[in-house]
Design a protein that fits this description.
Layout: H1 24-35, H2 46-56, H3 128-138
């Protein structure tokens, strides 16, 4: 994700990998090592998401996850303005890391949009390595 600041409309398209191709596993791994971001399509059901996720990553349970380990981000109607529950409301979700407070946080994160939001839904991604390098560099 070295050039995320460009704001390019094609940013996600530029990171697309066809997961049905015979060499998809190798391409996914190489692209994740190189850029840290892969986009895919065709995950239409929870089971398809779970199958794909278990193929490419270790699923780390989240306090709000279901028994299968997947966390549905949605407005529950009852979690608005509660600390730690922003992903279960309709307001802005501030920049954060997933599970960074556990001894072995996940190395990958999968975000699947099954239904586009009627409004909003913008996602800002930051490369943790780049943020770390910038912080270390500014402290020298």
């Amino acid at each position: 994700m070295r050039d995320a600041a460009t704001g390019s409309v094609t940013f996600f398209a530029d990171h697309y990998v066809n997961i049905r191709a015979s060499h998809a596993g190798d391409v996914l791994a190489a692209q994740l090592r190189e850029t840290g971001l892969v986009t895919v399509e065709g995950l239409q059901t929870r089971n398809e998401v779970l199958t794909f996720a278990t193929r490419v990553m270790a699923i780390t349970p989240h306090p709000h996850s279901a028994p299968d380990g997947l966390t549905l981000i949605r407005d529950t109607g009852s979690h608005a303005h509660r600390a730690g529950f922003a992903g279960l409301g309709s307001g802005e979700l501030q920049a954060h890391t997933e599970r960074s407070g556990i001894p072995r946080p996940p190395r990958l994160m999968l975000l699947v949009c099954l239904r586009p939001a009627p409004r909003g839904g913008d996602v800002l991604l930051a490369d943790g390595r780049d943020v770390y390098d910038l912080l270390v560099g500014s402290c020298r």
